[in-house]
Structure to design on (257 residues):
């Protein structure tokens, strides 16, 4: 697994709080890229930040040889990454992690919250080729809504805001409980309280469900155990898995949140 330099082709805002980057990605990288995978980005121009930052692949275009990322400049590392401009290069290791799997489902809910909306776009793009996809996207407030237009060709779309400024007034789980017919598969990415609520809903209704977990990472490829999370064996006993290498996608029945 070797890092490579990916040239920034485009940069622009994504809602109020995030930045969208389109990177040139060589064919060798694009061939195996699947929804749910992530890239691990070196913090530029600073030797003191030795750990890379994990960022989901928001979309990939094999023909154009590009991938899209949506990054929230949160701490120092992501802020530095977001100072890069078109023409600069990002040093990334990619693609990493496992992926969402349709497993023959014909109807899918793609549930995203905040930065967790980003990987849902790639999943909707791919899964809409074989299934009917409904994307339910949650944000704190109207100005944070992003990528609505990108989702439109691939999914029926429902926007939710915590303050009720746009769309459904409440969480994505409140929205699906009230509004939608049950699907054959649920996929979700977002803050842990949202994932817990999605997990409880899916287990209660016995719907297959895959959750994308966020965890602090060191190496990003399974060597350091920084990203361990609790999982359950089929006999109910608990064990540990690595979010970077065994995940970031876990079956809702198998993960302890
Ligand atoms: C699989 C995965 C996919 C992600 N996808 C996206 C995405 O598409 N867009 C986006 O904006 N963010 C995403 N994140 C969160 C993003 O990685 C963190 O916000 C970022 O690493 C924080 O780094 P920082 O330097 O800004 O913050 P700091 O707090 O300065 O970072 C310090 C350290 O903590 C780690 N860290 C801090 N917060 C997180 C976090 N929430 N998750 C993982 N590591 C963290 C950093 O890697 C770094 O090692 C993802 C995280 C994971 C695990
Ligand atoms: S980050 Fe090193 S094992 Fe996951």
């Amino acid at each position: 697994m070797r890092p490579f330099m990916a040239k920034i082709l485009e940069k622009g805002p994504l809602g109020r709080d995030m930045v969208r980057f389109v990177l040139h990605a060589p064919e060798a990288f694009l061939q195996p890229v699947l929804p749910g995978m992530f890239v691990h980005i070196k913090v530029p121009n600073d030797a003191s930040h030795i750990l890379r930052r994990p960022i989901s692949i928001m979309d990939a275009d094999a023909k154009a040889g590009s991938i899209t990322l949506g990054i929230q400049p949160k701490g120092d590392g992501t802020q530095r990454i977001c100072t890069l401009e078109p023409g600069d290069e990002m040093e990334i290791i990619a693609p990493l992690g496992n992926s969402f799997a349709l497993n023959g489902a014909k109807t899918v809910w793609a549930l995203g919250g905040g930065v967790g909306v980003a990987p849902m776009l790639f999943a909707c793009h791919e899964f809409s080729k074989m299934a009917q996809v409904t994307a339910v996207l949650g944000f704190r407030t109207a100005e944070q809504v992003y990528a609505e237009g990108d989702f439109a060709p691939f999914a029926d779309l429902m926007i939710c805001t915590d303050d009720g400024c746009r769309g459904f007034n409440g969480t994505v789980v409140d929205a699906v409980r009230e509004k939608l017919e049950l699907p054959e598969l649920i996929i979700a990415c977002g803050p842990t309280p949202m994932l817990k609520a999605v997990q409880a809903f899916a287990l209660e209704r016995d719907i297959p469900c895959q959750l994308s977990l966020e965890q602090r990472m060191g190496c990003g490829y399974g060597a350091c155990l920084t990203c361990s999370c609790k999982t359950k064996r089929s006999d109910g006993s608990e064990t540990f898995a690595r979010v970077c290498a065994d995940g970031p996608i876990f079956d809702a029945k198998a993960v302890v949140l």
